[in-house]
Specification:
With 57 residues, this protein is α+β, with helices and mostly antiparallel strands. The chain has helices at 6-18, 24-30, 43-47; strands spanning 2-5, 35-38. The longest helix has 13 residues, at 6-18. The chain is flat, with a radius of gyration of 13 Å.
């Protein structure tokens, strides 16, 4: 079982792509029994000036 905030997952996938090794995390997640995505805002994201989930309509 793996837990991710959606923001963290997107950032990790983007870093893989920029690092020239896309697909490694996706391949590991294929073998997880369950992947949980949390849509709640990560507090450090809000503090850094990011939009809140409810504000991004």
């Amino acid at each position: 079982m793996r837990f991710f905030s959606t923001i963290e997952l997107v950032n990790a996938l983007e870093q893989e792509k920029l690092g020239g090794k896309p697909g490694q995390l996706a391949t590991r997640l294929m073998y997880a029994d369950l992947v949980v995505l949390d849509l709640c805002v990560v507090p450090r994201y809000v503090e850094s000036g990011g939009a809140r989930h409810s504000d991004s309509r």
